[in-house]
Amino acid sequence: MAEPQVPRPDAPTTVATMGPHNDSNDAKAFFLEVAELLDLPANERRRLGAGVPFTGPGDLICRFQLVRLEGRLHARPEVILPLVESDIRRIDANQLLAVQQVLLAEMQWVLGHSAEGLLQACPSAWVTSPEEAARQLDLGVSLADLALELLGPAPQAPKAGPTTQ
To answer: Minimal CA–CA distance to 99: which of 108, 90, 88, 111?
Structure first.
């Protein structure tokens, strides 16, 4: 019997939405268990399976991608870093690539651009159990903190100085 193919990180994915992927009982149960494992507040638990950003551990914005392959759910978290495009442009490209290299080589996580225009991190692998999904999200929050630390403090807008007349 052939091994089921696991989606590649660059493969087109269906971001979890209330539709055919996670409107099923198994998807609802999957996300309910993930929410319980993460000890999310009730208002965030509802958002978890809706494919919309929710406040995750460490107060970071998170979201889950979900695909169904050969009848089995595959999920991976997205952790959105609080850096907007203008902040990202101020970061030295070599520094950003060095952080990307560390995350990919050591932890198999990649940096990317979120739908909201922010920097995001997500694992290159998909998981199939709620325990693995919760563990991946916890790891992602730690890696996001590390990435923010390595990238330095968020750039600040220049302040206006005194004017001379």
So the answer is: 111
139 burial (CB, 10 Å; 0-12 / 13-18 / 19+) is middle
User: Of 140, 117, 4, 2, which is closest to residue 65 (Cα–Cα)?
Assistant: 140
Q: How far apart are CA 144 and CA 150, in angstroms?
A: 10
Residue 7 has pLDDT above 50, yes or no: no
Q: Which positions ≥6 away from 53 have C-beta within 8 Å?
A: 47, 61, 62, 63, 80, 116
Place of tokens 């638990």: 45
The pLDDT tens digits for 39-78 are 888 777 778 777 789 988 888 999 998 888 888 899 999 9
Partners of residue 65 on adjacent β-strands: 15, 76
